[in-house]
Fold this protein.
Amino acid sequence: MQYSLQLDDRCRLASDTPVSAVWKLLTVSPDKTASLSVFDQLAYGVAQQHVADNEVSFSLKALEQKRITARVAVPPQSGTCAAQAQTDIQGQRAVLERIYVQTEEGWLKPKVLYVDVFGTSVDARATPVQERLTP
């Protein structure tokens, strides 16, 4: 699973719903992706996107109470678009590194059992943080 931001050629968010999710088909090719099915969207999709300036606040359908904020900048040293997502993990503001969603296949849709959230605190110590959440 991969979440991405849709940007224009000036590194600005390209729409009112710039966050999307796709399956990474690593067994086929590192670059091969596939759209989520309607049922996969219920567990892994993106919800409640709100765009302001050049950042988007959103949540995942598996865990709608956890807000994530993604910002895009163009660092002068690289000159290329750089996105960063932040959220609260264990009560600390953190740069989001990865999310793991554990599901159980259901009759029509996957049932989310828990979500693990991993990141690094934004404070001066840059401490690794993680949290397990249940819907």
